[in-house]
Amino acid sequence: MKIAALLRSAALVTAVALIPATTATMAQVDGRAGPEFAKLFAVFQRVKASYVEPVEDEVLIRGAIDGMLAALDPHSAYLDGSDLERLETLIDGNYSGLGLSVVMEDGAVKVVSPFKGSPADAVGIKAGDFITHLDGKLIYGGSLDDAVAQMRGPSGTSIQLTIFRPGREEPLEVNVKRGVIELEPVTHEFAPGNIGVITVNEFSADVGADVFAAWQAILKQAPGGRINGLVLDLRNNPGGSLDESVALSDLFLTEGRIVSQRGRARGETILYDAETVYRGDMAEGVPMIVLINAGSASASEIVAGALQDHRRALIMGERSFGKGSVQSLLPLGTDAALKLTTARYFTPAGKSVQEGGIKPDIAVPQLSDPDMALRVKYQTRESDLRGHLINELGIKDEELEADKSPDPRFQLTAAQLEEQGVKDFQLHYAKETLRRTTKSTVALRSPKR
Asked: Taking Cα atoms as reference points, which of 98, 135, 146 lies closest to residue 118?
């Protein structure tokens, strides 16, 4: 019952665009693997008989399973017990903790991004920080799941984090009070110059409907319902429901492919087209900019890629994370499941974002961040994760390299921008671009055929 309920939820909301799959799609064991299984069993017997201390069968079997999946890619894992419960709380959309997206990098817990408005964000934890100790206890070399479990806890309780921040000589020690993490998936604002801004923080259930509602609210605020431009902010959005990324894209597209999912099994190849969720372009005739950065992953990249390939929006900011794979949740009995990478997805133009991510049409650095240079140097993307899938289209290394030549438009320092009252330069630049443009010059060209 627990697994069945979790699978129903996973079809709607997950942090990695999970798609439920049946065990019928699992490959049969090749008979030629017999000798390899014999080796595994021989090691198991030898450890049981000769290890310096007695070892439980469960410990050895779990270690073998974890090692098998670790040999595949960073997103495949075996889930049971507390691991399965943590996934369930993420799918439900709220939990008590710090509000951090983290990965394991060479034995260290590295922050991908703090969630906006979370306790971690409030105390100044930054993307690229390394968490080395929890309540004074060294966590280097441990498991990511154990670290995450320790950082979660009852709302109102505190935990001390020791942080190594690249570029700083001394470690930072911060006390963070845990809170109930309930991200508001969609927020909006009406900016001067009749510019609408819609921010999507995660792709949870009903995000497409929430964005449509935000657009209607912006229209009501605009004099005469006239909007001169729209910014769709997908920065630091780690992804979520694949269906909701399709729904959001469909709000702005009237024809053509949105994304294609391709796997080994016939049933894992799925095509998603426009006009299947929403009819028409809700913001027809309105110039549009999509903001992305290194924290924009998975479902965010699906939306950015679709709107870029159809030339419906101008993509601005920094190259995205580069996660172009889909994970399926496969039940293993009543209290365990396998989270397995089963497919890749491709943009309408047939491009895989795996490793390379979405390259912005206009690269705009976040000049308002005083630690921008260090942050860029130590940013983590999919291509930095050990064992990541290789882009099957053979993307060249030089295509992943940033243009190092100085851009005369982006010379102000964080201090100078602060004096001007600019706290978010990328958003500021997007708004200014829309204010000085016309409908015929941005994001309204004919779609590629």
From this structure: 98
